[in-house]
Amino acid sequence: MHFRSFPFDFLRWTTVCLLGLSGPWLLNASADEPAISFNQDIRSILSENCYFCHGPDENNRQAGLRLDVREEAIDYAAIVPEDVDGSELVARIDHEDPELVMPPPDSHKTLTEKQKELLKAWIAQGAPYEEHWSFSPIRRPDVPDLTKWDENVEGKNVHPVDAFVRARLLAKGHDLSGPARPDRLLRRMHLDLVGLPPTWEETQDFFSRAREAQASDDARSSLIDQKLDELFENPHHGERMAAFWLDLVRFADTVGYHGDQNQHIFPYRDWVIEAFQNNMPFDEFTTKQLAGDLLPNPKTDDLIASGFNRLNMVTREGGAQPGEYLSKYATDRVRTVGMAWMGLTTGCAECHDHKFDPFTAKDFYSLGAFFADIEQWGVYSDYGYTPNPDLKGYNNNFPFPPEIEVTSPALLREQTQAKQELIQLARLQLVTMPDNQKTAANDWLANVNGWLEREADGWQSLPMASVPSKDKKVQAWAANNESVSLGSLSPQSIQVNLLTAANQSPQNVEVRFYIEETQPPASEESGSEEPKYEKKEEAKPTRTDVSVSFARANRWLPSFSSTVAQQNVASRWSVPATDAAGRAVKQRPHQFMVDQSKHADDPMRAVFELSGPLQLKEGQSLIAEIKGLASDTEVTFESSPLVRLRPFDAAELEAIQICDSISQPNALLSWMMSNPKQAKDSGAIKHWRDRYLACRDGRTWTMVTKATEPMEMRVLPRGNWQDKSGAVVEPATPVFLGSYGIATDKEADNRDANAKRLTRLDLARWIVHRDNPLTARVVANRLWKQFFGVGLTAAVDDLGAQGDPPSHPELLDYLAIELIDSGWDLRHVTRLILTSRTYQQDSRVRPELSEIDPENRLLSYHPPRRLEAEIVRDNALAVSGLLNLEIGGPSVKPYQPDGYYSNLQFPSRSYRSTAGDNQYRRGIYMHWQRTFLHPMLANFDAPSREDCVAIRANANTPQQALTLLNDPTFIEAASELAWNMIEQKESDETRLRTMVRRSLQRDATSEEIERLTVFLNQQRELFLADEALSVQLTSIGQSATRHNASLSPADRAEWAAWTATARIVLNLHETITRY
């Protein structure tokens, strides 16, 4: 709505005329009429229809009229309290002239008759305004006394949540629904707190205990409390609670812009999970993310948490303007902090004052100034027109600094598992190998034992002449005109040590290995596929590239490629699989950055593993060519074990003693890791070997925040980054909200409150200050949404004027003050919600309330809802028995065709599905490619996380059913579930009942069993008649290979029929719905 500009006297004249023409209005509201609330009934009407032209935005205000401030609306005579006919607002909303009616036709907004009557009744009651509900101080409300409506509650201990909810229901003559069935309640609690369904055994146990407790309210409450304690302590509780936060902070594995390259950030995700698992107070949770790097003596975890500030999208596109992107990064952080913690659409003030909330453009950029000290680059590359000397040599394969190297508990656990698997495989190899090979292996092991014992950390750099060997004739290596021999079982790895000058600029270094010979090579085949010799004229030395299959280093900043398999990503070395044209690449130099400025006296060390043993002939030498080094760099070459191995404990020692010569298990593992033939002979060895190498001794890199000199921040008129005419701003909180306690906190820190520039630490303290009216309400509302599907205010992403008022405002404030007074204890508020009858009630729709409460805002029944995308997948894998419950670690890639990433460039890359049991990890660990989200996630409404998201869409589309039927993960889950049923050797009815119990956590009805039996028999006939079809269905997924070995056509047809039946059960609406 907007009032067109005309002289004020004319407005008065029009008002008088209209008053004379209109019928008489009773100016005083009847005492019997219910009071109209401005916040509940009026604000949304004015905000939606009027504030755009007559609201807080002074630059866009029409006719000088402001309706969001009572005094200004009254001075303008738009509103005359208790005088409906004298109010110009009423005259305009009822006017029929398109030139005078409000809202004007070109706004495409209209008021309903009900809205018009509400405005008139409100004015008749005196047009009282209220401070916007979310900006008003939080006060603990009185818990309603329900005896006014229900005398039976007198003397009973009514749960506070139920008191607020029932008060509204009872006032309308209704009440809560009865309690949910115990099996449904247990499934609801498991999915809400762990994100996984309970087992059938857990369901039966809870059902039995609930039946015993049903006669006593105290016994029932005790049972619920015990179950909540159990679920809070479940090691997967943190994973479930972290999911909504990762949407808010736009956590992703890629940078988003342009090439959407991979970034190192999974330790941040693991930190969030651990924080929720340990019930970290929310104020501490907030401070560590916004300003972990600014804490006194920050710990590694504090720095990892500060990675929040690095989750905005970034670019290294050639031609991008650094100033433009620095502006994008700054505004993105303000939008994210505004929505994640304040529940406000602060982004609306990027170009002008907010049109609906009292949030100005100056407030916007002042908030952005808090983050002006973050070390960052507008373009993460060093181009001629965007010079960044600190990033010299960086290309699309490089990381996004600043980063730190940290220990990942998940990688340590996986490395331990891989080590144990390799040792068992090594034992089997030694026991079963021929005697002559066993003798050579034992001789090598005996020699290696000595130097392993001398090195406590398991790393030994050997001079070239002292490599343990029995046979001196098989291999030879030459460097610096010196030649030494390597035994046939020696490690196929070479160590390069570099010592550069102090304070030297980083160098872009390439390493290439090749064989050089002065005579034509022998005609016989090499001992491995690589190298392939190339004959040339005798007058010139012949060079043949030697393939390097793996590389690792200590303190290098090596290249990072989006195209490589996980083990190479983890090791931070680039070994591209294809070139730009998609052709296979076997020879490519290893590129890395050498930054010796901080370690001038400590050699840089890198180990390269050759693809196979070298069969060097007379006249041949192995050459390591290194390009890009400064002239004063010293280079030495040594033979070295491939991996750095930690000592084993006593139990492991006892488990792997094979023969007397193996006094050090590390020697056994070193032999297994460095013998290429073993890897070729055994797919299992290669699999576990690759996984071991990928773990890098549990070390990984993660982006962190590093404070630097703050850059200048200005108000950008119209958001134009090129317009420098706006005022320079310092860090400051929004004026309309105040500066809760910042000065006091600064004094407590012995800082000069006037001279000291505010920091991100000050911002964090302001956000979680108990006088801040927004944060506690925002968090409490999001917790409510997590357990009911919709918040007490439905617009959890906007607690401003454009958002919805809360359905139960006193309850929201009660939960908010409980959160603050409990020390920001999220688990306390969660328990408060889940122990209520409101949460535990039945989920069946109440038809009798459909007219007065079509959206169930009165909460007369528990709202059922579809599971989130990640939980849909987790549920299927859990039911099937495939789910890998490992916590934390690198993200994984579920099945997709290799060409799924074919449209991604800079660099080009192919999609490589994760191998092994990591394929079945929980959805929270799925690789989040911002521009090419996994189709399963996209089809079930997961966000791309390019922006902060507080509400996921909840669509119901055909793609979802097609995903459940045809996505390889879900087919494999159905196949595994079917195999488990077949192995039971029971009747069809028993197996079908078991399938339903596992999938739905309830017993199947007789009708369901009958219909499933008919379908199962139809599928048997189909697959018995078409063996190729049964083979096709039962060959999908990695797990199929475990069962496919020796199946007869009839057995395979049976498996296929049960797989088809399991697909139906897993595709049921009930399976993916939480009731």
Automatic annotation (TrEMBL):
Residues 518-545 are annotated as: Disordered. Residues 160-375 form the DUF1549 domain. It comes from Rhodopirellula baltica SWK14. SUPFAM superfamilies: Cytochrome c. InterPro entries: Cyt_c-like_dom_sf (IPR036909), Cyt_c_Planctomycete-type (IPR011429), DUF1549 (IPR011444), DUF1553 (IPR022655). This is Protein containing planctomycete cytochrome C domain protein. GO terms for molecular function: electron transfer activity; heme binding. PANTHER family: CYCLOINULO-OLIGOSACCHARIDE FRUCTANOTRANSFERASE-RELATED, F-BOX DOMAIN-CONTAINING PROTEIN. Residues 50-106 form the Cytochrome C Planctomycete-type domain. It holds the Pfam family PSD1. It comes from the Bacteria. Residues 759-1015 form the DUF1553 domain. Residues 529-543 have a biased composition (Basic and acidic residues).
